[in-house]
């Protein structure tokens, strides 16, 4: 997956605040990273857990191009639900 299309504005903001900032280096580093979000049964069976997991996945997906969702102790149950929700609309145009 590619870096989000609005990420250039984030890079521009960072370049204005940080001396010697190299936007292409940051893009290259982020493209090579994968972030794993692990969750347990409470994240899929309780409303608060689902909301927290959804929010965390969406925030991470805005910065990192590769996000892995890993269910802990669920035997895979619930992973499809979270994967489907995390991928819906997580890359806004602006």
Question: How would you portray this structure in words?
Answer:
The protein is of the alpha+beta class and 94 residues long. It has one domain. The protein contains five helices and two strands. The protein has a two-stranded parallel ribbon with strand order 1-2. Residues 78-94 have low confidence and may be disordered.
Core attributes:
94 residues; alpha+beta; two-stranded parallel sheet; 5 helices; 52% helix; disordered C terminus
Strand element count: 2
How many helices? 5
| Rg over alpha carbons | 15 Å
The largest sheet, given as strand count, sense and whether it forms a barrel, is: 2 strands, parallel
Contiguous runs where pLDDT drops below 50 for at least 5 residues = 78-94
> Termini separation (Å)?
18 Å
Q: What string gives the helices and strands in order?
A: HHEHHEH
Strand content: 5-15%
Please state the oligomeric state of the protein chains shown. single chain
- Helix residue percentage: 40-55%
Q: Using the alpha-carbon principal axes, give the shape.
A: elongated
SS-derived structural category:
alpha+beta
Tell me the count of domains: 1
Side by side, the strands of the main sheet go: 1-2
Quote the average pLDDT.
75
Summarize this entry quickly.
The chain is an alpha+beta fold and 94 residues long. The chain contains 5 helices and 2 strands; from the N terminus they run H-H-E-H-H-E-H.
What's the structural blueprint in terms of helices and strands?
Layout: H1 7-17, H2 23-31, E1 34-39, H3 42-45, H4 47-63, E2 66-71, H5 79-86
Parallel strand pairs: 1-2
């Amino acid at each position: 997956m590619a870096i989000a299309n609005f990420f250039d504005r984030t890079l521009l903001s960072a370049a204005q605040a940080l001396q010697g900032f190299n936007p292409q280096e940051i893009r290259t580093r982020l493209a090579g990273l994968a972030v794993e979000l692990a969750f347990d049964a409470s994240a899929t069976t309780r409303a608060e857990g689902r909301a927290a997991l959804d929010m965390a996945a969406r925030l991470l997906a805005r910065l990192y191009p590769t996000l892995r969702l890993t269910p802990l102790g669920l035997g895979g149950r619930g992973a499809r639900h979270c994967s489907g929700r995390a991928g819906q609309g997580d890359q806004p145009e602006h």
